[in-house]
Design a protein that fits this description.
Blueprint: H1 2-21, H2 27-49, H3 57-64, H4 77-95, H5 101-128
Length: about 130
Amino acid sequence: MQNHILQAEHNAKFHDCICEQFPDRFFDWKITVLFYQAIHLLQGLADQKGISIGDTHYEIERNINPDRPNPSMPISKGAWREYNSLYQYSQTARYDGITDFETFERLKQVDYGYCVKNLENFKKYLQSVGLKTS
């Protein structure tokens, strides 16, 4: 259980390092690490509740999405939107949209601002439903 929380904290520290060292660069990686912080916090909550939500993106989506039939740990629709936005932004940052690099970096900088807010809201939700961090 604690391993997911520790990994989320590790990801948060890495995020802080790259923000400090490279405030105007690497927005694709900043987005990606925010998403993985969210996924580990979510897994930590599932572990604390003794619920398996799976290990793959597909399994996790199937088990938390409140619009799916019989999810094992449905989250609120608002929390789902925050999580899914982080997932979509991270997918785009890793696999899509590279035109010229300068344009890509500017676009990811805008996306990153949204991701920071998504993660903040998602963390508030997780804490409100019982996530205990160290």
